[in-house]
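Q: Here's a chain of 415 amino acids. Please give me its 3D structure as tokens.
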Amino acid sequence: MDRKRHLIAAVCTIASISPQARFSYDASWGFYAHRLINRLAVFTLPEQMIEFYKVNIDYITDHAVDPDKRRYAVKAEAMRHYIDLDQWIHSETDDLPRDFASALLQRSKFYLSIDGEALSLFRDSIQIALDPDTLWLSDSVLLMVCPARNYWTLMEFRICLYENLMPEYDPASWSVPVTRLGGPFASLTTHGVLVIDDRFCPHGILPYHLERCHRQLVHAFRAEDPVRILRLSAELGHYLGDAHVPLHTSKNYNGQLTGQDGIHAFWESRIPELFAADSFDYFVGPAYFLDDIRAAIWKIIFESHCGVEDILQTERTLRSVTPEDQQYCFEPRGGSLTMQACRNYAAAFNARLNGQVEQRMRSCILATGCFWMSAWVEAGQPDLLRLYDKKTSLGDTTKSTPPLAPSWQWLRQHE
């Protein structure tokens, strides 16, 4: 426990000196909370699943933080941990497509760059809105490139998006050779690239990635692959944890827009560190099947977002009535002094939030069990007892297993 506390202290220290970079200041729920959520979710599972997960509970616990460790090495990782919902939705009449391909198409621009000339790939956005399942290519593309046909189905684009576009994602310059696009461009040998002016992904894709991760887990259960089942279960739990953090749904994610820098780590790291072990109640009941995963994901996202203003307002009010020298204290950690929210100040913040942190953790524990169970049910409820003799092949899967790959056979059957 001491090592975990030292790590969280170091993370919170970074929060106080470097709030500008979205993922430089915290470990997202804190490593302690992510691991605790995954571990406790195991005990919500039904009899047919729990033994397999209990045997591997240390793996599920330890690897709950893998996505955070990966975010500095993989360009597309950081955006999987959040969504700036308030960037897109400002009133009851605003909406955001629940399908990732549709959302990207609606909020970004696509160009074919041929011989230095940039051609708009699709007809205008009005046409796309009227006929969302058929993406008609622009006249300039048809004249210059001569593809096999003048349209791209949304399904073809969705497959291309995950198979060919996302592996090449680069927030600075996102482009893919036209010969890799497939669909109407499948037989082309033209030297050119698809350039994506991405105005959507930088604001986060958490709910979309959650759905994809769930699909991958379904496929892993169907394949009865214990390595992928456990790895995807651990990572799905991580992203569900992020989805339950209100500030992961706002562009004011660290209070930087309201002069409340550091509130992110205060809420999701300091509070669990001080109170989760001794004060929180983790009796959440048994997991149950979710018949609409997409709806369940967005329900979590919107519930989290409803808590954003309460966090910000509560911290503002508490700060205004608390002497400054009683707000942040230096504590000895790992042979050095680090600045932390004082214990009494943190306790007051937690109390004024009416147990919001505890409630979100409880909700996440149950949701994680429900998502694992639902993937298992969708896969046909394979006998996990048969996988016991395979568990020893796990080893250090962070080094021995290949990167995650989309379950396209499943996607084609269910989209």
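Q: Can you summarize the key feature?
A: The CA atoms of residues 55 and 107 lie 45 Å apart.
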